[in-house]
Write a structure and sequence with these properties.
- The protein has 149 residues and is an alpha/beta fold.
- It has helices at 25-37, 48-58, 74-83, 107-115, 128-144; strands at 2-3, 17-21, 41-45, 62-65, 97-102, 120-123.
- Strands 1-3-2-4-5-6 form a 6-stranded mixed beta sheet, with helices on both faces.
- α2 runs parallel beside α3.
- The longest helix has 17 residues, at 128-144.
- The radius of gyration is 14 Å and the shape is globular.
Length: 149
C-alpha cells in the first residue's frame, strides 16, 4: 500500500519529499502528520517491495525506513535503493538520504545499516526536534548546491 503526494518534478515547495516505509500503520501515520506539519511532502509505503517501487516513481529526497519490515527487511530495501541512488548536479551525497528509524539499536545493528547503505540510524521513538533538525540541515545542503544544467 502506498499513499502519496506524487511529485517527481523536484519541486520541494518549501519542504522535502519524504517517503516513509513502515509497516506499523499508527507509527507511519503519526510520523507523516508530524512531517507534514513541518512543511514536508510525505508518502507512505507499508512494505519493502512497495517502498522500493514508490522510491523509484516518486524520487524522494529522504527515505525513513523501518528495519523490521515483513517479507523484505529494511536492510535489503536499502541495498536495492542504494544501487539506484542518483546524484544531482555536483552533489556530494546521492539521493535519497536513507535514514533507518528502528527499534534495533545495538552496535551490530548500526553496522548492518551502514553496510546496507543507510546514512543515519535513529532509534524509535525518534525525537521530533532532532529529526526535523536533521531534515532541515539536509534541505539546506540540497538547496545550496548548484543545479545541473
Amino acid at each position: 500500500m502506498s499513499s502519496s503526494n506524487n511529485n517527481p518534478t523536484g519541486d520541494r515547495r518549501g519542504g522535502l519529499r519524504i517517503l516513509i516505509i513502515e509497516d506499523g500503520a499508527d507509527s507511519a501515520q503519526t510520523m507523516a502528520i508530524l512531517l507534514r506539519l513541518y512543511g514536508h511532502q510525505v508518502s507512505i509505503s507499508t512494505d519493502g517491495p512497495a517502498g522500493i517501487e514508490a522510491a523509484r516513481k516518486e524520487k524522494p529526497d529522504v527515505l525513513l525506513l523501518d528495519i523490521g519490515l515483513p517479507g523484505m527487511d529494511g536492510h535489503e530495501v536499502a541495498r536495492q535503493i542504494s544501487q539506484s541512488r542518483r546524484k544531482s548536479g555536483d552533489r556530494q551525497r546521492p539521493l535519497p538520504l536513507l535514514i533507518a528509524v528502528t527499534g534495533f539499536g545495538r552496535e551490530s545493528d548500526r553496522r548492518r545499516s551502514a553496510e546496507a547503505g543507510i546514512d543515519l540510524h535513529l532509534l524509535k521513538p525518534v525525537n521530533p526536534t532532532q529529526l526535523e533538525s536533521i531534515l532541515r540541515g539536509f534541505q539546506s545542503e540540497i538547496d545550496s548546491e548548484p543545479t545541473a544544467p
